Amino acid sequence: MASLAARACPLARTQFVRTQTRLLSNTRVVRQEATPNIGSVPPAKRPVGAFRGGIVGFLFGFSLASSLAAYHLLEEYKLASAALQASVEELQTSTQKVSAHVRRIEAVEKDLKALSETSASKEDVARVRAEVKKLYDGLHVEFLDLRAHVWGIQEDVHALSKKNSTTVRIV
């Protein structure tokens, strides 16, 4: 029993201490007294539920990822557009070079056509060659005839000079 009394004594002591502290803060008079207006008490925040937080997080992450993807897509579009513009400019310069070459080729073809119209063909050259050969042969024959005639005159002159040289004339 002595042990029961020892055990009961600390319990009674703690209850006495508790009731004293309770009387100071929770008396009826204190509860009914008007409390000064310090301000409104903020409403208690409801904890965000896992489902609602998941949806909000998903939407936030999706919008962030979408905006980053749109930014990168815009950058890629700018790069592709710049590359396409450079390609178009390069194509334009090469087209101008090709058109300049075509104009030069057309000018050369025009000159070639004019030369081919004014130049003689193989048939014309062969015909002219035959005419020249006929003329040369004709001139050669005439030259030989003239030479024979001159030779005959020389013979006659030589024969006359021999005749005249044998006879002496005194006058």
Question: Helices and strands in order, then pairings?
Answer:
Blueprint: H1 2-25, H2 28-32, H3 50-118, H4 122-166
What does this structure look like?
The protein is an all-alpha fold and 171 residues long. Helix content is 84%, strand content 0%. It is built from 4 helices and no strands. It has helices spanning 2-25, 28-32, 50-118, 122-166. The longest helix has 69 residues, at 50-118. Mean pLDDT is 80; it is low at 11-23.
What are the main properties of this structure?
171 residues, mainly alpha, 4 helices
Mean pLDDT: 80
Number of helices: 4
Give the end-to-end Cα distance, rounded to a whole number of Å. Answer: 222 Å
Number of strands: 0
How would you sum up the major sheet?
none
Helix content: over 70%
Radius of gyration: 69 Å
Strand residue percentage: under 5%
Q: What gross morphology would you assign?
A: rod-shaped
Stretches where pLDDT is under 50 for at least 5 consecutive residues are 11-23
Structural class: mainly alpha
Helices and strands, in order, run as HHHH
Summarize the structure.
The protein has 171 residues and is mainly α.
